[in-house]
Design a protein that fits this description.
With 938 residues, the protein is an alpha/beta fold. The chain is built from 27 helices and 39 strands. α22 crosses α23. It starts with 15 loop residues before the first strand and ends in a 17-residue tail after the last strand.
Length: 938
Amino acid sequence: MQIPSDRHEYPAHWEADVVLRDGGTARVRPITVDDAERLVSFYEQVSDESKYYRFFAPYPRLSAKDVHRFTHHDFVDRVGLAATIGGEFIATVRYDRIGADGTPASAPADEAEVAFLVQDAHQGRGVASALLEHIGAVARERGIRRFAAEVLPANTKMIKVFTDAGYTQKRSFEDGVVRLEFDLEPTDRSMAVQYAREQRAEARSVQRLLAPGSVAVVGAGRTPGGVGRSVLDNLRDTGFTGRLYAVNKALGDGEKEIGGVAAFRSVRDIDGPVDLAVVAVPAERVPEIVTECGEHGVQGLVVVSAGYAESGPDGRERQRALVRHARAYGMRIIGPNAFGVINTSPDVRLNASLAPETPRPGRIGLFAQSGAIGVALLSRLHRRGGGVTGVTGVSTFVSSGNRADVSGNDVLQYWYEDPDTDVVLMYLESIGNPRKFTRLARRTAAAKPLVVVQGARHGAGPRGHAVRATRLPHATVSALLRQAGVIRVDTITELVDAGLLLARQPLPAGPRVAILGNSESLGLLTYDACLAEGLRPHPPLDLTTAASAADFHAALSRALADDTSDAVVVTAIPAVGEGSVGDAALAQALRSAAAATPSKPVLVVHVELGGLAAALSAATSTAPQAPAPTAPAPRPRTDTAPATAPPLPEGAHLIPAYPASERAVRALAQAVAYAQWRRDAAEPGKVPEYDDIDERGAAALIDGLLSRGQGLALGTAETCDLLGTYGIHVHRALPAPDPDTAAEAARTLGHPVALKATAPHLRHRADLGGVRLDLADEEQLRRAYTELTELFGAPEELRPVVQRMAPRGVDTVVRAVIDPAAGAVLSFGLAGPPSQLLGDMAHRLIPVTDRDATSLVRSIRTAPLLFGWRGSAPVDTPALEELMLRVSRLVHDHPEVVAVTLEPVVVAPHGVSVLGASVRLAPPPARDDLGPRTLPAY
């Protein structure tokens, strides 16, 4: 029986903005009774061929009955979604629940027929694929587990949409029709397909912003100065290779140019396409500019205008309206309150920013949410000397401002496959979608280094950024980012230091470091710094202050050829005297030696050698350079190096130089850790399957429990039942409200037993006397009961329980939580003071693999207690790892499980015993990172 449509509210959470294959955007929303005219207009623009494919017969127009059917839905058994641009339909999809006989049905029937129609002008943009993801998520939410679709054999595009989706499916052919049936349960392949499509679409959307064929600067002043005019001048002076336009509403009748650039009063007046518009007008004028740009077909906006979320509640609402307005036209936004974007590619030469000087071309991608920090980073990378070695160039630069739309996640998607970017540096003040960021970071870091510094770590983020608050300490968040392969640094100085090394040198094969130089003291400082960073340095080689360029060349060549070293740090101080080595000669000697063994990284620590850093770079870019000028010949020595070094090979590595040993060594240590992560990531672990896990049984329990309310902490019996479905067995604890009941419980469980107070202030507090162990008989139990009540109060306050003794071992704690910012996190530590007082806990993102579990156990500082410290018996860590993997599976399989605590978990030499457990449930989020592709909601 169909449920009347007025029984179901409009499902607003199904609305979503999506990025299409070509980088444009569309809005997906449910179809309602108010869409009749839009549906008719949409259908009239569909070709006869597409109509034939949809209805299997000529169908020139929709009847009134058709329009009623396609716009009236109950949002349960009959659902229709539309993709819209500018408020008009460009595609539709609908499902109708059917029974086993193929006729309309209601729950518990779990199959539905699905059908699509895409306007011909928008076919090939990936609209149907996006709609399939969203209608599939809606169907799963409504209890539908399988779709069926009938398609004409000639409709190859639609068949491809279904077959490429990655779902488990079967195909049949009957009466000239292809029938496809596929399960809607996400599979590894379907998720891989979805993520690949997401990556291509979002990368393309950023590419359209960074490599436009034409740019209009809206708000360019007629006289020099001002934000808009500055951006226009920067674009012109950089030599932008595309078409450039200026737009100024106050342009005089006879004025045709501004600053030598063709000028117009409105974007509408421009004769030709505009790919990118830079908006630099007051915030109150931005809406009309967005309308002009949308109607003209502009693909994206860089909004440098301020006065949005950073200015308060009114500005935040203005920012939301801006995003909604732009997305209605399929445009993406960088900003508002943005500093701008830069692309140094010779094919583009785009400086649509407020940076007065374009950075030199190179292979570093740079992202900064703060314009001021962006300027500082560009300046540091641009300098030839000083604190950081010379010149390392930038491929692309994005300053996102309030990142209302385009965020660091989007730019990561672009840089992942950008052939012009080898290293990614990011300054983040907030992470809007941390789960997605860690997923993208893990994938990006497997291909190229990703270095991140986080601002606002110990307080609220910038006012302009809408972010989810995390309950995790910053150190935990940092550890989780490192697990995803992110090189986490604390300052922008460290960001640049690490970036220079990673952009210029190969990754080290291990932690062994050779140190050589002309200062014994500087070598010893470097040696100490290596030890402090966990590296394994060799004793420094002192070449003395009399060392020549040839001496450095020979020593570096030997160190690089030594199989016992993985990297070399060269220390150099200025020498005084007739035989002292010059900067250029020393740089040439080091570069020629390093070029002969390009597989090991070389770093230089220099003290007050302003010319050496520039000479070591000897270039204006990180791209392959022409051979450096020949250096003057050094004084003759018995072990002379060539007076002129041979030309460097194509793409030879430039050598980074640092003004302090600790900075160089810290950058090297980060590279060593990242290289190890890359090696580990090449052989990822697996999420094990366990035959005794009852996933459906757990789901049924959870559904029944949640039917009682929105969120709840489970009771003891319910907790044990749920954990039991995943093979996690909790030792029974029987309530003991009086001595007689305690004695009966002990007889039921069998001696020896433990008597525990479970009141919140005494739970797990053996140090306070709230736990009595090894009670061998009833007499001991009754005596302990009396002592407990005399010491702490009445049984009603203590809530005592009796539990059978577990084998002796090490008490640990296993927790899993759903953090609003970081996502699902598994934590482990030793119970009691190590975790509670010292904070000695290790963390991993869920789902945890077998390799993750192994490393998690060994990551805490007190891990030696598990492995036979000071002659104690090693405990059963494999059983502990299996327990953590089962907890991870439970939380990953069921997003309704928002918190699990197992404490204490006693790990004995053989087996583990879970003595206490708690579980909390809550309704799952309507959308998460495992759902269909969506842009952040506004």
